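The data are set out underneath:

___
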Amino acid sequence: MPDNDNKAKVNSTAGVEKPDLSKKSSRFMLKNYTGDEESERDYLPVRRSQEYKSGCLGGLMYLVFILCVSIVLACFAWMAASDALALNKESVSATINLPTDIFETVTEEETDEDGNVTGVREVAKADIDFVSSALKESGIIQYEWLFKLFCKLSDADKKLDPGTYELRSNLDYRAIVKKMQAGSGAAVTVDVMIPEGYTMHQIFNLLEENGVSSYEELMYAAANSSFNYSFLDPEKAGDASRLEGFLFPDTYQFYVGMQASSAINKLLSNFNAKIDADIQKQLNDTGYSLSDIVTIASLIEKEAAVDVSKGIDERSLISSVIYNRLRTDMTLGLESSILYIHQDYEGSPTAEMLTEDSPYNTNINHGLPPTPICNPSLAAIRAALNPEATDYYYFYYDEETGSSRFFTYYNDFLTFVETRRNNDENG
């Protein structure tokens, strides 16, 4: 009986193939196998299900992670592109000022198409940190770092110009850079009327008051900037007074915050255009230099009474007095030249001023002052070129008539002056 039972047991398991423990499955390995039929049957399917589910869950989590990262990157790229390309941005307008002191002049090599160095040039580079910060604070851009990157890749720091610009947030980065250039439609302009007879000092103060450029920047540019005009004395480089007389009085349109040298060049260019072939011919006939004629014209501008409504225009008569005195080597004795070195002073010169040791004191010095004493009009320049033929050597401005009285003889001049003074004293 025991033998039969044993056979039954053997037969009952005869169809069961025992796993080969010496081999490892490529997908899984059985652990703690005891050879017991029941534990093996219970163990195998449970273990395989857990591993399968764990692998699926891990793959799903990785996929979700990749999708999240992709979505974040896509959102970030969209926001960056929206700012750079001005897509669906809130409409904002702002005024951006790029002062001249954020620009640095650097020297760069110039090359030809083959990369060979052909020379050097000076380039003004803007402080992009300042520019991007101003654009960010005004709401024109959202990402400073992205604008800086764009500027670095496009060399935008060399393309900007000083000035004040009206910008909008619906401009892409490329358009913003183009708008911040002189001559662009975004540049804020101002019309400035420069009166005839204004000195350089007065003109530069007027330009500063209108936001064109600062007085200090204009004075520095007047002395040190290069202006390619033959009427400027190259030996006076470094001296701002070299421009006195050549800053033509007129109405100009300037860019707000523009470069000082560019503002000055507008006035010089206008003067150069006014000296046409006709004036050049008259100049050659006089035997005087252009600088001398402009100096004479500046004296005429300051001394002559002009009132179109009353038909008063003394410019050619004053011109004749100046030339008559120059020909006879008399001192010009003009108060306007003395007052030029006291531009903040109002009224007639004092006795001390009349004896002051200065090349602009035409009471004690013969000939013309060293520079023009103001910036004369074209009419004054024409009067300097075409003095009226007279024998006048003296003149005195009569406040009662609003015009001057002219005299040939000194005694007649003194008599008239004393009479007028006595009348003024007696009321």
